[in-house]
Each structure stands twice: as C-alpha cells, then as structure tokens.
Amino acid sequence: MMVLASVAWAQDGAGNGEDGPGTFLSLIPFLLIFVVFYFLLIRPQQKLKKQQQQMKEALKKGDKIVTSAGIWGTITNLDKETATVQIADNTKIKLQRDNIARLRATDES
Predict the structure, then answer these.
(1) Burial of 65 (0-12, 13-18, 19+ CB in 10 A)
(2) Could you give the 3-state DSSP secondary structure of residue 108?
(3) What's the rounded Cα separation, in Å, for the pair 2 and 7?
(4) Does CATH number 2.30.30.30 belong to domain 60-109?
(5) N-term to C-term CA, the chain
(6) Number of C-beta neighbours around residue 69 at 10 A
C-alpha cells in the first residue's frame, strides 16, 4: 500500500515545489465568475445607489414625490435628515429623506 501512495505522489509531481499551468488554469473560471457578477450585479447596484443619493440631495420645496411606502405628496419643508410632505389639503407628515423613493413625473396626478 505504501508503494502505491509513493508512486501516486511521484506521478502527480507534488512535493517538487513546481506549480504547473494547471494551478493558474483552475483559477480562470473563478475569475470569470467574479467579472460576470461585477458587471451584472455589483456595478448596476452601485450606479443605482449613486443616482438615488444624488436625487435625495437635489430635493427642494415643491417637489412632488413618492415615498418608499407608496405615499404620494409634495415636499413643504426640508431639513438635513427629514422632509415634511403634504399628502392632503390639511395633512402633513414628517419622514426621513431616505424614505423618499422617487420624484413623480409631471404627467402623474
């Protein structure tokens, strides 16, 4: 049994300190998977997050918005972290700026 193990080691080339091209070739699929994940998942998410942050920084009084909860309203006051939104004639709510999902288009009522 010991002879078969030493023959297997000798044929494999293990233990001689040399890394063959097989080591680098085995890493190529992992690198390709990472590149695909980066361009299909990570990069678009980063881009979307950057656009959302720019939209939240550019908010101003009078902007018509939709919150992450689906509430439609108009911004009446802005602070650094919060926004006051009028959702009906005599109804205003105060919410965090992070909860503003998007600006409403002008053709949306």
Answers:
(1) buried
(2) coil
(3) 9
(4) yes
(5) 82
(6) 8
Beta bridge partners of 85: 75, 93
Q: Give this prediction's pTM.
A: 0.63
Q: What is the DSSP letter of 63?
A: -
**What are φ and ψ of residue 26, in 5° steps?**
-75, -20
pLDDT tens sequence across 71-95: 999 999 999 999 999 999 999 999 9
What the block records as the tokens of 50 is 């950057």
Strand order across the beta sheet in which 64-67 lies: 91-96, 82-88, 72-78, 64-67, 100-103
What are the strands, taking DSSP E only, across the chain?
Answer: 64-67, 72-78, 82-88, 91-96, 100-103
Q: Is the pLDDT of residue 34 over 70?
A: yes
Q: Where are the domains of the chain?
A: 27-58, 60-109
In this structure, are residues 59 and 75 in contact, taking their beta carbons and an 8 Å threshold? yes
Q: In 10 A of CB 78, how many CB atoms?
A: 15
